[in-house]
Write a sequence for this structure.
């Protein structure tokens, strides 16, 4: 669900088409150039911790490392190819009248620009191309992982197709809930992993078992997980950059989680291969998503459409299931779970549900105001107050980490050191140095306490907040201060 109004109206004259095409092209060119420094910096920040763990910190098997690096090289090629293809595809979808108008800019000149729709199809095609080519370098004809790998690609391909059909035919949302179930069938049929769960130690004495085999119930859980992941990305949307931004943060966290698990399980080759399998799919997914983010970040020059949100959700569900960390994946989706719970009364029909559950835009100030609709976007605005669309997106990306105290402290430390008293976005208030100093000390103490209270086994969860603090501080310093000032 994107912040657009779909239209199929045809141009009445060539002159009208030229008049509307000119501002679109000008907007696309300007936004792409302006966003490149941010995207390049963000890419480096996301890759550096992962590259350090892969190349330096852990002693990973040479053959496994070689496969990961080959996949990374193909992912880089996918990034460059995506950047080249998106402008070309944008012109084609505009010709076919597959475009929309940005609702969150209604009443401004930007709200009159035709924005190309459903550009997620480009990302999906490039991803599948790279994933298929990678089989030549890594898998043999008798490889045990080849069946599951192709089953994963089949599920992802099926979901891309269904997402594009939804963009073109505008499928009712009740049908959307069922679509991932069909796309997940190849994945569930090929799954050959465990169906057991570890019972928490306090409950072992009551259950009488340390490990419980759920059998078909676990497969049902995996199918429901695929349905949730695809739809949770789709409903946690509506502002420029949010759909792609949240998937980029989650994908980076998944990469770091996988490489840490590989490094910590040197004596378990099968476990290593499961997490390497996840890396083989997440690296090209992250690369193509970063390319799309360079066009979709505020102000957006393309809309990703349901094609991308379904593709992204299914990809992360696939890597979580076949990588054997589906339980951990739900932790990475904590904000999406909260958004789903907030949306449940409207999705169930208990409360009237409008077509677009978006904030209210004020063209005079350029700020968004939260409505009573049950979404995390509106809920955030109701708590923190009005803010610009870009600031709101960064606040929501800042909420993506699950260790909020750790994220808040580190994020504030960076914002204080970098911003030096800049004014708050959407207000004229300026934070005073003493207040900032107190916040810095308290937040850092809280961050250190949170980080060092964790056992090494689950220490990887502390890295995701670091990713988000760097994402937020790079893209916009002032929105970090907005987030923190509202929580005083």
């Amino acid at each position: 669900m994107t912040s657009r109004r779909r239209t199929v109206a045809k141009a009445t004259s060539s002159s009208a088409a030229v008049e509307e095409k000119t501002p679109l092209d000008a907007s696309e060119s300007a936004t792409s150039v302006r966003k490149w420094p941010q995207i390049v910096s963000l890419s480096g920040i996301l890759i550096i911790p992962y590259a350090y763990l892969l190349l330096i910190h852990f002693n990973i098997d040479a053959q496994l490392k070689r496969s990961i690096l080959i996949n990374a090289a193909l992912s880089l090629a996918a990034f460059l190819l995506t950047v080249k293809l998106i402008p070309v595809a944008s012109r084609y979808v505009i010709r076919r009248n597959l475009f929309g108008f940005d609702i969150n800019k209604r009443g401004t000149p930007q709200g009159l620009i035709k924005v190309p729709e459903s550009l997620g199809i480009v990302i999906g095609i490039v991803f599948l191309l790279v994933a298929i080519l990678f089989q030549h370098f890594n898998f043999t004809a008798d490889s045990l992982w080849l069946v599951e790998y192709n089953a994963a690609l089949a599920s992802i391909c099926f979901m891309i197709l269904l997402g594009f059909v939804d963009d073109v035919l505008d499928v009712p949302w009740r049908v959307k809930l069922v679509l991932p179930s069909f796309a997940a069938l190849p994945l569930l049929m090929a799954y050959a992993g465990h169906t057991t769960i570890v019972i928490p130690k306090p409950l072992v004495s009551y259950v009488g078992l340390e490990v419980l085999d759920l059998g078909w119930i676990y497969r049902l859980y995996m199918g429901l997980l695929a349905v949730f992941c695809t739809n949770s990305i789709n409903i946690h949307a509506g502002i420029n950059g949010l759909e792609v931004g949240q998937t980029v943060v989650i994908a980076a966290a998944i990469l770091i989680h996988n490489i840490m698990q590989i490094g910590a399980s040197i004596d378990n080759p099968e476990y290593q291969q499961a997490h390497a399998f996840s890396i083989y799919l997440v690296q090209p997914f992250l690369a193509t998503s970063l390319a799309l983010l360079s066009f979709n970040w505020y102000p957006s020059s393309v809309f990703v459409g349901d094609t991308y949100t379904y593709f992204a959700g299914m990809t992360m569900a696939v890597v979580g299931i076949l990588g054997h960390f589906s339980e951990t994946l739900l932790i990475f989706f904590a904000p999406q779970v909260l958004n789903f719970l907030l949306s449940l009364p409207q999705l169930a029909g208990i409360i009237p549900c409008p077509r677009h559950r978006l904030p209210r835009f004020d063209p005079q100030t350029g700020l968004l105001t939260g409505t009573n609709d049950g979404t995390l976007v509106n809920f955030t605005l109701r708590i923190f107050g009005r803010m610009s669309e870009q600031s709101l997106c960064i606040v929501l990306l800042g909420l993506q980490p699950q260790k909020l105290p750790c994220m808040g402290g580190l994020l504030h430390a960076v914002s204080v050191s970098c911003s030096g008293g800049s004014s708050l976005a959407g207000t004229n208030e300026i934070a005073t140095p003493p207040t900032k100093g107190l916040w810095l000390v308290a937040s850092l103490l809280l961050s250190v306490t949170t980080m060092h209270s964790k056992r090494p086994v689950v220490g990887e969860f502390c890295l995701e907040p670091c990713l988000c603090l760097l994402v937020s501080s790079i893209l916009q310093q002032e929105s970090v201060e907005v987030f923190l000032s509202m929580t005083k």
Notes: The first strand starts at residue 4 and ends at 7.
